[in-house]
Amino acid sequence: MRSILSVGLPAAGEHLAWQSQLMMILGFINMIGPQALSAHVYVFNISAYYMAISTAIGMGTEILVGHMVGAGEYKAAYHRLLRSLRISIALTAGIVGIAAIFRSHLMDGFTDDTEIITMGAGILLLSILLEPGRVFNIVIINSLRAAGDARFPVMMGVFSMWGVCVPLAYYLGVHLDYGLLGVWIAFTVDEWTRGLIMLARWKSGVWRRKSLVRPGTVQVLEA
Asked: Residues 123, 42: contact at Cβ < 8 Å?
């Protein structure tokens, strides 16, 4: 149970940090105006389809990496993650690119308000930069957890979400009056900041010393 919670509790903590960050930023968007809130909700729902592919690849890779790390096949696990990351980025970029081309038509399906359509279309265009950064986090963090390295993603997630995203969203979106675009620029900076740090963590190989199970045994060790 201790070993399970050593991975499960940090994973839950990261989700809690993300949800609380989102609630705070929704408060900023409310300050910008009701049209901004509507555009945010519509684009956020569309982005769920972007994340579906990277989430599926991330979960599948997590299972494979967990088996490889448990068997002591660290080199295979290392390259498996990088291959999955490249595939996920390519597929996500393709879908986001298509959505960006038809961004106004996508927004037309939700509303006839031209202001909301314009704001939403601008965010969908920005997603070309944002979503690849999100892929890094979805795919790599899952594999870090599978390797037993669960605490580091949480610490960096809390730092980036609350130390970078929240203050930057307020500064750009409210203080500088960039509106919803400023808020989503903050999301983009946060995703790429965490994503590149997660990639550096994976390449560092520190996770190889975090395995909960030794090769060839079922002995459970402390993280």
From this structure: no
